[in-house]
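We read letters as residues; the fold follows as tokens. A sample entry reads:
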Amino acid sequence: MPTYLNVQTAAPAAPCLFHQGDPVYLAKGSYQGTLGTFLNLRSDAKWADIREPDETIRAHPVEWLAAGVPANVKQ
């Protein structure tokens, strides 16, 4: 019987690509194209809060977010 344990440490979380106030848009998902401002990561770092143009704050998966404004949107 082995007397050692093979314990793996958890992989470090990837750093967030977004900072508070960054313009973002939803590049994937059912609300694709929605513009917003990045606010923060949630306690589950796979989700983030963004402020949408109508001032609504909603949570979306970080993997759906892209930085900036999509090319097809006039500013």
Summary: Residues 23-67 form a domain with the SH3 type barrels. fold (CATH 2.30.30). The longest strand covers residues 35-41.
